[in-house]
Amino acid sequence: MTALITGASRGIGAQIATLLAENGYSVAINYNNSKEQALKLERELLGQGYIAKAFYADVSSMAEADQMVREIEQTMGDIDVLINNAGIAQQKLFCDITENDFDRMFDVNVKGVFNCCKAVLPSMIREKNGSIINISSMWGQVGASCEVHYSASKAAVIGLTQALAKEVGLSNIRVNCICPGVIDTQMNADLDDGTIGILKDETPLGTIGTPNDIAELALFLSGKHAGFITGQVIGVNGGMVI
C-alpha cells in the first residue's frame, strides 16, 4: 500500500507519514520549501527499515502535482491513499487582506487539494479502490476572526470532500475530511504562553492537540476498518467545536 502525504516535511504531515510507515505503508513525502526536513524524514524512515521517498511539488500547480504523482507511480506503484495536508495560514484583518493574499490562500489550500485529487483518481478509479483524506480546520467549520480567507479556504475543502465522496463512491473510493483544532505545531509556534493558556481554557479537554492526534485518525481512515466511512467531516479539537 502506497500513501502520498502532501506537506509532509514537518508537523502534522511528518507525523502522519511516520505513523503510516510504521503500519506498513510505503510513504511518499511531498515537500515544497522544506527540502532538508523532507530528506531528513526520508533518511530516518529508511534507517528504520521502512519504505519512504521524498518528492518535490508545489501542489498549487497542476503540472507539478501531476508530475509528482506520475513519478510516485513509476517508483512506488499506484497510490492507494492520498492525504492532502499541505496548507498555509495567515492572520490579517479582513480589510488588510490583499488580492494576492486571498489568491495564494486558495491556490494552496483548495486548488492544491483539487490538483492532487485529479492526479491520483485515474488509477484509483481503474483499481476500484482508494482513500482520500483532506485536512481542513475547525475554522473551516465555524470561521475565525482575522482569518477570513483561511477560514473560507478550509470551508471550501469541506465542501469539496463531501461532493467528491458522492461522486466516486461507486468506484469504492472513500473521501473524508479531518478538521484539527489547535495543534502544537510550528504553525502555532508564534503563540505566546498566555494565548496558549486561553486556548486550553476554552477547550473542554483542557489542553491543545498534538500532531499524533491527527495522525491516528488519518491512519484509521486510510485502512479497512473505515471501509464504510466516506463523506465525513471529523473534528479533532478537544471539544472546542461541536
Could you describe the 3D structure shown?
The chain is of the alpha/beta class. It has one domain (2-236): Rossmann fold (3-Layer(aba) Sandwich), CATH 3.40.50.720. It contains 8 helices and 7 strands; from the N terminus they run βαβαβαβαβααβααβ. The protein has helices at residues 11-22, 35-47, 62-76, 99-127, 138-142, 148-168, 193-202, 211-222, and strands at residues 2-5, 26-31, 52-56, 81-84, 130-135, 173-180, 233-236. Strands 3-2-1-4-5-6-7 form a 7-stranded parallel β-sheet, sandwiched between helices. The chain is globular and about 45 Å long.
Low-confidence spans: none
- The proportion of residues forming helix, as a percent range, comes to 40-55%
User: What global shape is seen?
Assistant: globular
Number of strands: 7
User: Which CATH first-tier class would you pick?
Assistant: Alpha Beta
CATH topology-level fold name: Rossmann fold
- Tally of distinct domains: 1
Q: Tell me the structural class.
A: alpha/beta
Order of helices and strands: EHEHEHEHEHHEHHE
Question: N-to-C terminal Cα separation, in Å?
Answer: 34 Å
Beta-strand content bin: 15-25%
**Major pleated sheet:** 7 strands, parallel
So, the CATH homologous superfamily? NAD(P)-binding Rossmann-like Domain
The CATH architecture comes to: 3-Layer(aba) Sandwich
| Computed Rg | 17 Å
Strand order in the largest sheet:
3-2-1-4-5-6-7
Number of helices: 8
| pLDDT averaged residue by residue | 97
